[in-house]
């Protein structure tokens, strides 16, 4: 797997799996064109998690005498639109089998700061005080007309102090991360299922 090549060693991981209607080509298109910005708007659990995180960051910034970061108000956010340069970047792709994207940042302790990186520099990034996140979508045929999708996120802290702080944070947020990832797969599954109803009926 591409994920194993990009981040074979990691401190934490979470994975969710779901069988979706459609062959790998159709499911891959749906996964990469789904609007992630809609997820907190359409999923109450995800919306609540985002609100809690935002409130915690505002509090942490206020206690430190800093301004809270502005909320990301992008109208649309699709995996297909990720580039090789930015905060979250497309790291590798093998349509319709795998898509891997990631980020480098400091996202524990109440504040989130993402580094602007190039995909080519991701593997060699090793600056203390940061951690790498790699997210991978893996698709495998499941019978004649369905696809098994595995969605995994791995994190590797880049120094011992960051690892200790991150793992303390991870114990709290891991269930929420799984909810968000499962919510994304559900948001993709519903229209795929609806599209099959006339043909199955």
Give a structural overview.
The protein has 201 residues and is of the alpha+beta class. The protein has a single domain (2-69, 87-200), classed as Alpha-D-Glucose-1,6-Bisphosphate, Chain A, domain 4, CATH 3.30.530. The protein contains six helices and eight strands, in the order αβαααβββββαββα. The protein is globular, with a radius of gyration of 18 Å. The protein starts with a helix and ends with a helix.
List keywords for this structure.
alpha+beta; Alpha-D-Glucose-1,6-Bisphosphate, Chain A, domain 4
Helix and strand layout, with pairings?
Blueprint: H1 2-6, E1 12-21, H2 24-33, H3 39-42, H4 44-63, E2 85-86, E3 88-94, E4 98-106, E5 113-114, E6 117-118, H5 119-122, E7 131-141, E8 146-157, H6 160-200
Short description:
This protein is an alpha+beta fold and about 200 residues long. About 40% of the residues lie in helices and about 25% in strands.
